[in-house]
Design brief:
With 324 residues, the chain is an alpha+beta fold. It contains twelve helices and ten strands. The strands form two sheets. It has a six-stranded antiparallel β-sheet with strand order 1-5-6-3-2-4. Strands 7-8-9-10 form a four-stranded antiparallel β-sheet, with no helix packed on it. Strand 2 and strand 3 form a beta hairpin. The radius of gyration is 35 Å and the shape is elongated.
Length: 324
């Protein structure tokens, strides 16, 4: 690392330049300067340009990772972790050409979005998932066979890809409601086409781990599929969007679905333990209750309503008359 000049040294240097003691000419002369390569700042490619074309899409992928890790853990009874390790753009034909041995390719439909998407398990992950799903011990080293997956093996992997569809729906739910489903599973990239060969696709690469088993999942979305969501993605982190699903609204919604106990109480009495132990079949217990007055309706043992008892459709019922 080059040493840093102190404030005093910088002042001395500027004084020497001002007095002409230090020359400002280049060491190599003008000829060396003319050999410099010009740089057009307006044509520099931004390394994260896909982040600007489809903003905040990484948030959707990270949300999917959390959901999918939980789904795989519950389904296969192994502790899975799913982490996003890449987000890039490619030409569809070039990307698929690089996947000469992709493992397994799931073709997804994403209504109401158009053109669908792909979920690709690389060979290492495909064979690792098969071993886990078929009951292999966690102590056995994972295999990566140099062959294509058979039709039976592809059918076994469908369950994991079906779970991915549900988790994709959950990840996109903060933007819109989609109903993704798996159309088919292939092992030949030449039989897969979701966009024109020169069409642009956005590829999210995820690392899946379960103990010593690991591999990569590629989620492939055509740019034209995600383009209609651009404005929604831009607003994803804005306060105006977040207030639509504040924590108190979530709690309020969940509380409304919580079951409670409702009791129609005609009267109460107090008895000591001796009398309770001496009760026999046929004994009559008098209640401190006027049959002509309304009864109390308790919600979780707290008085909430008063009502008149009666019958309805041949069953005992109460008619609410007011609230406490």
């Amino acid at each position: 690392m080059e040493p840093t000049l102190s404030r005093a040294e910088i002042a001395d240097l500027l004084k020497a330049i001002h007095e002409g003691q230090v020359s400002l000419a280049l060491d190599g002369g003008q000829e060396d300067f003319l050999h410099c390569t010009p740089v057009n700042l307006f044509q520099l490619a931004r390394p994260d340009k896909e982040q600007f074309r489809i903003p905040n899409f990484d948030i959707i992928l990270d949300t999917f990772c959390r959901y999918y890790a939980t789904s795989l853990t519950n389904q296969l009874q192994r502790t899975f972790s799913v982490t996003r390790v890449g987000l890039e753009t490619f030409e569809f034909q070039k990307f698929m050409a690089d996947k000469s041995k992709p493992g397994s390719i799931g073709i997804l439909d994403l209504p109401p979005l158009k053109q669908g998407a792909l979920i690709i398990f690389d060979p290492k992950l495909s064979f690792s998932m098969l071993e886990i799903m078929l009951g292999a011990s966690s102590d056995i080293e994972s295999l990566e066979l140099d062959r294509n997956l058979t039709t039976i093996e592809l059918n076994i992997l469908k369950a994991s890809m079906d779970d991915a569809c549900l988790d994709i729906d959950k990840a996109f739910s903060q933007l819109l409601s989609i109903r993704s489903h798996l159309i088919k599973v292939e092992n030949n990239p030449r039989l897969v086409s979701i966009v024109d060969p020169e069409g642009e696709v956005i590829v999210g690469t995820l690392l899946v781990k379960a103990g010593q088993y690991s591999g990569h999942v590629h989620l492939v979305f055509p740019f034209t599929t995600l383009e209609p969501l651009r404005d929604l993605l831009k607003e994803l982190l804005n306060i105006s969007t977040q207030t639509k699903s504040n924590w108190y609204e979530i709690i309020e919604e969940q509380l409304q679905e919580m079951p409670v106990t409702v009791i129609a109480q005609s009267g109460t009495i107090e008895m000591n333990v001796r009398k309770v132990l001496n009760l026999q079949v046929g004994d009559i217990i008098g209640l401190d209750y006027d049959p002509t007055s309304p009864i109390q309706v308790l919600v979780e043992n707290s008085p909430k309503y008063y009502a008149i008892p009666g019958t309805h459709n041949g069953k005992k019922a109460i008619s609410l008359k007011g609230t406490y």
